[in-house]
Design goal:
143 residues, mainly alpha, Recoverin, domain 1, two-stranded antiparallel ribbon, 7 helices
Length: 143
Amino acid sequence: MTKLLISILLNTIFTFVQSDVVTPSTAAPHHDHHHKFGDKDEVMDEEHIKLHFNHTIDIDKKMDNDHSQFYYFDMHNLNKDLYIDGLEVAKGLTHSHDGEPFAPITDEEIETMVDAVLKDFDKDGNGLISYGEYKASLSVNKK
């Protein structure tokens, strides 16, 4: 990805998600960042998933692994085209919820993390993560 693409990516993300932007005065200290996309703890974070789907799923019902995995994929598939692309990965890696501190991330760090996610999950190299690729990667990597 080029620096221009990263700049466009960031502008797009922050245009659509202004409520998720953290000002420097509220940001946590800078940390080394690595992607957690598809991490077992992230996929199985039922509370986080239910926060995103509170009006569309029964938030009182306990989720099994298959449901958690499906909803995790679906909440990152922002345009509902059945694939997760680099923009959607970046959004997932850089969003926070009201009141949560978020450490600033440089363009280069986002690029590195998105590239790592695509390397781990996009098995056919087309720049998109299908649900099948996502499920296969979860099984193989036991994340």
